[in-house]
Design brief:
By secondary structure, the protein is mainly alpha-helical. The chain is built from eight helices and nine strands. Strands 5-9-8 form a three-stranded antiparallel β-sheet. It has a two-stranded antiparallel sheet with strand order 1-2. A hairpin with a 2-residue loop joins strand 1 and strand 2. Helix 7 packs antiparallel against helix 8.
């Protein structure tokens, strides 16, 4: 076997290929798509630190590194994306993506009774939460912000509180990545809720609410008429920022559940 001047193999060995594909379950570490078609693997083993010091994320101290530690399994599209955007996909980011993907594969393929029980607990929590919230419709409930939001948006916090009382041992979630993503979603929800529920103090212990009451269509409208112009503009900017935060975390959570928890039903029969 040929060796470079730094003692590293000039080729990717069969042992490294088997380890990379095995620990990634034959899936792209970014988009999670299977990398086999008709028994032929179509994956690409991308270098985290470029093979050449002049390549993307190249490092003169680590040339020609074909070790498992320096490779990440990707589809062709994500390989191109990663190499065309080294500022986003840094060495640290790619290592984190690889670690997260392989860690999750290890968890979902743990078929011990203990691991299976933990997974069932997470699924029970998610199904209970989604059954009584308009989760699939969240985007439409806040799409009209900062001008208005639908009253059903408030059910996300209420149902979360109910589950914590009914299923106290189910949270935090057992799947670490799932918990981080769900917690990001519910945290962004609470930040939005607290902003919507605030009031502006004025003279004589009087207050102006940021939003008015619900109309016949179930929408609460921003209180443009009573709030001072400069204050209204400031609140609008905050609402837009928090709307983006909750929708980003919402999308991230949906994608993770679809990839790794297909047993979960995100559609509610009540909304």
């Amino acid at each position: 076997m040929a060796r470079g001047f730094n003692g590293m193999s000039d080729t990717i060995t069969n042992a490294v290929i088997k380890k990379l594909y095995g620990l990634s379950a034959g899936k792209c570490n970014i988009c999670k798509e299977p990398l086999f078609e008709n028994d032929i693997h179509i994956g690409q083993m991308a270098h985290i630190i470029a093979k050449s010091p002049k390549g993307t994320r190249g490092n003169i101290s680590f040339p020609n590194d074909n070790s498992y530690e320096n490779l990440i399994l990707l589809c062709a599209n994500d390989h191109i994306r990663v190499d065309n955007d080294p500022f986003t996909y840094t060495v640290e980011v790619l290592n984190a993506i690889k670690k997260e993907h392989e860690s999750h594969i290890a968890k979902v393929t743990n078929f011990s009774l203990f691991g299976d029980s933990k997974r069932r607990s997470d699924i029970e929590f998610l199904n209970a939460y989604f059954r009584f919230t308009p989760f699939e419709r969240l985007r439409s409930l806040v799409d009209t912000l900062p001008n208005s939001f639908h009253i059903n948006f408030l059910s996300f916090g209420d149902q979360f509180d109910c589950i914590l009382m009914d299923l106290p041992t189910s949270y935090p979630l057992n799947d670490t990545i799932l918990h981080l993503k769900f917690n990001a979603f519910i945290t962004s929800y609470h930040l939005m809720y607290h902003l919507m529920n605030r009031q502006l103090p004025i003279e004589n212990n009087m207050f102006i609410p940021y939003f008015g009451g619900t109309n016949h269509a179930g929408y609460c409208h921003f209180n443009y008429q009573e709030l001072p112009f400069d204050k209204a503009n400031s609140i609008e900017r905050q609402l837009i920022k928090r709307k983006k935060s909750i929708l980003d975390s919402y999308t991230d959570l949906i994608l993770y559940i679809r990839d790794y928890f297909p047993e979960v039903v995100m559609r509610s029969p009540y909304f």
